């Protein structure tokens, strides 16, 4: 196979988190709780303002399968706070210094769910020099995977400013679209103001696009909003994280500011409600771009309703590889609507493919594999040209291409220059 793809594009990423994972303390291979004593911190950005931060341990991989304890960390790290998140992201293993700094009591040294998430936000941020290293590492990771263009869903003011600095210094090897994520309506004004300021700056490799919010959850945790109950029985249909009234405000105000709205919608009912809402808001004279993130389950009527809107669906076939083992069981009667890339293509709704890094590794080949294997499990075969659907649609945005030979990235040219991929 020989492919030359222009502007190879990963259309849904969490850019800085990808860099944090690439340079941070990763504990996926930790063989026991005690082995934390021997992990190397060299060359890592493991410290955040004096806190040792790590991610990825899982006691199920340890011989004793026992949860770790605060005492184990206190023996090894008595002098500074230590905060180690479990692989599932729902629990943290911390020492006494961390508990003291957080103002929390815990006999076990394990913080879960809300305690964990709120505590994690209180850890001091990375220093600018560390963020620079993370950005460089993330650029390298995307470039090695062949990508020259990405769309980031997790921008902040500090990330934007740093990216502008790095572009001016000639250090960026990616063209990046940026979106700000909000979790509540009261964050909207500030986020819109940030993007409008970002748009004033003359950048060539950076484009500030708009606002993102999560309308529902995920299929794996059975929180994505479906029109039928999970597993074909009971009364769990998933849930929404926003009221439709608040979502309506986001659409109106963001579009009125001339920016794009991106909505995380995984379940068919979540996507249907957002598309219906976009139609209502458009009928009132507000017009703008709507991006549906993931769009893993879409009913035919929803796809038809997208036609008069300016919609693009951002899909990650690689998620199918991870979900395939339980997908039919969870969706039952809705399975025929799952991963509807072919139905969208036939309805001429624009689609872009991506990988959702660092949730999944950034990989053109994983998406290609998913598109090849999924028809064996009753997902309609995608008949589009992957080189087109994985390319950034703006042909004027840098002179960039990627050469793929026998399932290997052979050459990446970004902005007219061949990149060193070693
Ligand atoms: Zn994502």
Whole-angstrom Rg: 22 Å
CATH topology of the largest domain: TIM Barrel
Quick one: how many beta strands?
Answer: 18
Sheet with most strands: strand arrangement: 2-9-10-11-12-13-14-15
Proportion of residues in extended strands:
15-25%
Q: What is the overall pLDDT average?
A: 96
Which CATH class of the largest domain is shown? Answer: Alpha Beta
CATH superfamily of the largest domain: Metal-dependent hydrolases
Structural category is alpha/beta
Spatial separation of the terminal alpha carbons: 23 Å
Bound molecules: zinc ion
Percent helix: 25-40%
Segments where pLDDT lies below 50 for 5+ residues? none
Layout of helices and strands:
Layout: E1 2-6, E2 9-13, H1 15-23, E3 25-26, E4 47-48, E5 51-57, H2 70-76, E6 82-86, E7 91-94, H3 96-102, E8 110-112, H4 113-122, H5 128-144, E9 149-152, H6 157-168, E10 175-181, H7 188-200, E11 206-214, H8 244-256, E12 260-265, H9 268-283, E13 289-294, H10 300-306, E14 310-315, H11 317-331, H12 341-346, E15 351-353, H13 364-373, H14 386-389, E16 401-405, E17 408-414, E18 417-418
Parallel strand pairs: 2-9, 3-5, 5-6, 9-10, 10-11, 11-12, 12-13, 13-14, 14-15
Antiparallel strand pairs: 1-16, 4-5, 6-7, 7-8, 16-17, 17-18
The site of zinc ion has 4 residues, from loops.
Structural account:
With 422 residues, the protein is of the alpha/beta class. The protein is built from 14 helices and 18 strands. The protein has 2 domains: 77 residues, Diaminopimelate Epimerase, Chain A, domain 1; 285 residues, TIM Barrel, CATH 3.20.20. Bound molecules: zinc ion.
């Amino acid at each position: 196979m020989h492919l030359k793809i222009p502007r190879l594009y990963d259309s849904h990423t969490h850019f800085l988190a990808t860099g944090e994972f690439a340079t941070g303390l990763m504990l996926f291979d930790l063989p026991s709780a005690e082995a934390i004593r021997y992990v190397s911190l060299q060359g890592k950005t493991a410290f955040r303002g004096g806190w040792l931060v790590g991610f990825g341990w899982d006691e199920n991989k340890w011989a004793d399968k026992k949860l770790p304890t605060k005492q184990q960390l206190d023996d090894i790290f008595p002098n500074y706070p230590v905060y180690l998140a479990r692989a599932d992201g729902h629990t943290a293993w911390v020492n006494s210094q961390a508990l003291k700094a957080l103002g929390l009591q815990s006999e076990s040294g394990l913080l879960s769910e809300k305690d964990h998430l709120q505590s994690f936000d209180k850890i001091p941020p990375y220093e600018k020099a560390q963020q620079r290293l993370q950005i460089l590492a993330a650029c390298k990771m995307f470039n090695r995977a062949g990508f020259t263009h990405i769309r980031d869903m997790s921008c902040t003011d500090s990330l934007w400013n740093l990216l502008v600095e790095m572009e001016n210094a000639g250090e960026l090897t990616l063209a990046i679209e940026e979106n700000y994520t909000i979790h509540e309506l009261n964050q909207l004004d500030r986020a819109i103001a940030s993007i409008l300021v970002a748009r004033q700056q003359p950048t060539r490799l950076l484009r500030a696009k708009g606002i993102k919010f999560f309308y529902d959850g995920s299929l794996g945790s059975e929180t994505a909003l479906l029109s039928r109950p999970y597993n074909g029985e009971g009364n769990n249909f998933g849930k929404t994280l926003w009221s439709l009234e608040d979502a309506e405000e986001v659409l109106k105000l963001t579009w009125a500011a001339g920016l794009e709205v991106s909505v995380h919608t995984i379940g068919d009912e979540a996507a249907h409600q957002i598309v219906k809402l976009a139609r209502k808001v458009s009928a009132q004279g507000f017009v703008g771009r709507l991006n549906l993130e993931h769009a893993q389950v879409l009913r035919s009527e929803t796809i038809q309703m997208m036609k008069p809107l300016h919609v693009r669906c951002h899909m990650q076939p690689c998620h199918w590889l991870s979900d395939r083992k339980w997908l039919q069981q969870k969706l039952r009667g809705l399975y025929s609507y799952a991963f509807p890339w072919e139905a969208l293509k036939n309805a001429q709704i624009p689609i872009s493919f991506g990988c959702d890094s660092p949730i999944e590794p950034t990989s053109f080949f994983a998406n290609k594999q998913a598109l090849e294997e999924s028809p064996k499990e009753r997902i309609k075969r995608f008949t589009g040209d992957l080189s087109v659907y994985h390319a950034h649609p703006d042909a004027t945005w840098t002179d960039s291409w990627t050469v793929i030979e026998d399932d290997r990235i052979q050459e990446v040219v970004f902005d007219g220059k061949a990149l060193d991929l070693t």
